[in-house]
Amino acid sequence: MMKTLLLGLICFLLTSCQKSNVKFPEWGSSGDVGFAMNINQLAGEKAINCGFFELLHRSKPTNYSDGFQCAMKAYKKGLPFKLGTLTIPIDSYSYEAFLYSEGGRFLEVNFDAQEGFNGNHYLLWTNQCEAFEFDSNKKQILGINCEKISEYSW
């Protein structure tokens, strides 16, 4: 009996220490594929994928909170990461990505596309920041001392 209890406790401890295997949504599986390709290139191959989340419907559950935690943990460890969202704030599709690149750049990339303009009406802007701040209550990433840079500087 004691042997079984001890074995059970050891198994529990081993499995509770394993790395989380949360499966995040892939970049490009939803949203704009061109945007996803740019983000993947900017972040680098070794960047931790914290997911791309469509936050279009409040009733549709997502694991964005886990993605946020993933980005925050990577940031605290100094590891490259990427985290993105798709929302519709008013009348356009708003793609937003936060990434810490393999090259040590903190980037906030925004792509705003109007529906019904066949992809010809869009805004793209990128901010390079000195650092990020994570607001755990609102699940927001805020850039610190950011400066707008040209997308051609990628």
What does this structure look like?
The protein is α+β, with helices and mostly antiparallel strands and 154 residues long. It has a domain of 100 residues. Helix content is 26%, strand content 34%. The chain is built from 3 helices and 8 strands; from the N terminus they run H-H-E-H-E-E-E-E-E-E-E. The strands form 2 sheets. The chain has a 6-stranded mixed beta sheet with strand order 1-2-3-4-5-8, sandwiched between helices. The longest helix is centred in the N-terminal third of the chain and has 15 residues. It is globular. The termini are far apart.
Helix content: 25-40%
What is the arithmetic mean of pLDDT? 77
Structural class: alpha+beta
Backbone CA Rg: 19 Å
